Amino acid sequence: MLEEIRIRGLxxxxxxxxxLGPGLTVVTGETGAGKTMVLTGLNLLMGGxxxxxxxxxxSSRAVVEGRVTIDAxxxxxxxxxxxxxxxEPVGTVGKGKEKRERLELLLSRTVMAEGxxxxxxxxxxxxxxxxxxxxxxxxxxxxxxxxxxxxxASRQLAALDRxxxxxxxxxxxxxxxxxxxxxxxxxxLDEVTSKARERAQEADLLRxxxxxxxxxxxxPGEDEALRxxxxxxxxxDALRTAAVAAHQSLSGDETVPDGPDVLSLxxxxxxxxxxxxxxxxxxxxxxxxxxxxxxxxxxxxxxxxSYGAGVDTDPERLAEVQQRxxxxxxxxxxxxxxxxxxxxxxxxxxxxxxxxxxxxDRVAALGQERETLLAELGDLAATITKARxxxxxxxxxxxxxxxxxLAMPHARIVVEVRPRDGFGPTGVDDVEILFTGHNGAxxxxxxxxxxxxxxxxxxLAIEVVFAGADPxxxxxxxxxxxGVGGKAAVEVGRRLAMLARHAQVLVVTHxxxxxxxxxxxxxxxxxxxxxxxxxGVETLDDTGRVSELSRMLAGLEGxxxxxxxxxxxxxxxxxxxxxx
Length: 580
Fold this sequence. Notes:
Elements: E1 2-10, E2 13-19, E3 24-29, H1 32-45, E4 61-71, H2 75-82, E5 88-93, E6 100-112, E7 117-121, E8 124-126, H3 128-135, E9 139-142, H4 153-164, H5 166-194, H6 196-216, H7 222-234, H8 236-251, H9 262-273, H10 281-310, H11 315-335, H12 339-357, H13 359-405, E10 412-424, E11 427-436, E12 444-445, H14 446-449, H15 452-466, E13 474-478, H16 486-499, E14 504-508, H17 512-515, E15 520-528, E16 533-539, H18 542-554, H19 560-579
Parallel strand pairs: 3-14, 3-15, 9-13, 13-14
Antiparallel strand pairs: 1-2, 1-4, 4-6, 5-6, 6-7, 7-8, 10-11, 11-12, 15-16
Helix pairs in contact: 4-13, 5-13, 6-11, 6-12, 7-11, 8-10, 9-10, 11-12, 13-15, 15-16, 18-19
């Protein structure tokens, strides 16, 4: 529910604060521009398009701030929290199982004179689009432009479904799920059948590649192992010669008895140190290190001898390795940079080939599922059509009764539910609301059969019929009383008061008969210092309401007859509300 709106620097409004409450709030005043700016400010707060030209002359920016209360756990609360908004607990409402925690949410919109704008939600900067998302769950605005939405076939279908309630909502939810699955199944069928040639070609290429890999039968890491083996075989003589030479350097050459070697030299060094090691621990440590070095060099020399003896020249094995490497290289040129990647490709290719080879079975399964879904959708669509047809008759009767009360005694609507070809996302029905304003006239589409004023009252009649069923807590009506007066205006006020029993209602009006039904009366006041004209908003008390209604009735606040008439209007409205 809207608790407060503050508007600064917008059009003729310098600084205005609207304290709103539950029930019916009306906005009146002498300045039409001021009343328009109230609605413009609300539109900006709800994410509407920003216009730098609406910024008040002399101001650099216009700012609209709003404070709303929402239920914890509601879609609006969850979306705001998801966007990072701060939500302040402000108490609870209801009792027992109906008890609900209420949260306060602050909204803000700033429009610069050059046209840029920015938004804040819950104290944090947010995209303007977020205000629009939140508005869908906060406010329903019915103005001359908003009424055009009812002219759309999709909106008329949605209105009827909303009126029908669970009778349509429950089967429609099942229908929607199955319809989405049907679309997915048909897309898969289309892909399989329309691309059969491409899929067959893909399968043939996979078989060829998998056959080639299978014939070579590579093993994980085989390419690296063979590369190392080829290197050893190709350089066997050089490797053996190097090992023998190194061994001789370490342990001596038997063919050269007096030749120097590392082990002999180390032995001589140890012999030089051993006699004196007991005289100095540091020298003893050095002698021990020479002993360790001799042991290590001896081990290396033995390993070199073993390595040299084990290196054999094997031309046949070298040819085998080179041939095998060539076969593996042929695979890595086509299917991966390494043999491990080739094996991974083969595994994925085998799975894909199984899928492609199973197309016939898949087509049969998808076709069977499609037939089952079509049958289920047919049953659900028939249920939905029946519920819509029944609701259409009730809806037309209920709205026609309300139109009669709104001084349109001969007006009526007809809701036609017509079949269309094939299944759609909302069933197999087209819905159109037709309107006739007098007896003997053929019902016509709303855009041809209803004037702007008639559309305003039609929207009011529809909302009264929906009262209590709409999740939106606040309704805003602009020019709902266009083209009416007298008794019709009283009935408009009475219907707005009825709607306000179930929701917060804000109405901008120029008719005293409507304003008399207000639970709260706001007046746009104009001031002029000779240079600049500005407007503000004040809340009227009982005396102020009489004066304002007198002005609206006679154009003169001091008229005694007008005041008497104003008091009579207020008493009539109060009696009407008490009787309900």
